Amino acid sequence: MAEAPAVDAHAHVFTRSMPFAADAHARPDYDYPAEAWLADLDRHGIAYGVIAAASLFDDGNAYTLATLARHPRLRATVLVPPETDSATLRDMANLGVVGVRLIWRRRAALPALDAEPWRGMLRRLADTGLHVELLAGSAQLPILLPRLADADVRVVVDHFGVPSRDPFERSAGTGALLRAVDTGRVWVKISAGFRIDHATAAEVAGRLLTQAGPERLLWGSDAPFVNHEAGVTYADTLDLYHRLVPDPATRAAIDRTALALYFNSEGMP
What we know:
Layout: E1 7-11, H1 34-43, E2 48-51, H2 62-70, E3 74-78, H3 86-95, E4 97-103, H4 118-128, E5 131-135, H5 141-150, E6 155-157, H6 167-181, E7 186-191, H7 198-212, E8 217-220, H8 234-244, H9 248-263
Parallel strand pairs: 1-2, 2-3, 3-4, 4-5, 5-6, 6-7, 7-8
Helix pairs in contact: 3-4, 5-6
């Protein structure tokens, strides 16, 4: 496919043998191993992929790290406690880990990022060259993003910034996202658009494209579409991406962004 993305920057891989987290919000009864995702990538002409750590599982990143060892075309984020030391982070980075995912969309109370253990964690991430992969919603972004900027750590925001259905809250969240992008240390994924209505996805994508530009944007499928498996296919996610970003040159620029961020431009055509 001549216009296939170069990188799928957001997918989850797992098997039924992996233990669920105690607070898992969904419990898939099927396998979506790395090989199934790679088959989807190959079927659609996508060269590289980035595994997003899933809060559903509590296997200590074992499956993700083993997958990276088998497949050099992949990178990943992981879930680790904030006390994780620099040596552990460096070891993970050497295996192909690019960031640590913070899943705070459903948290009623946000952590104090300017106090321990989070202050030290963010410093260690910055020193190790890893980024924060942030899953948070419109109401949380105006609070979290300035604190992360103060920590001088790179940030990749998932799923359009999880825009709110409330237009005022959504506008405030997207505004905070755009101000953060202006720091030069924040990127945003156009991913999981099937989880929000098309009008909202188009609205936020339009603001991101116009005001942030493709140099700060990434695309991800969110395969295997947990809780939406019956109504979404991999091809559907690509079709939505092409509708939200119809210009091939803009999509090519997003490819370059993903290759540079995750692969240091290795393997760029």
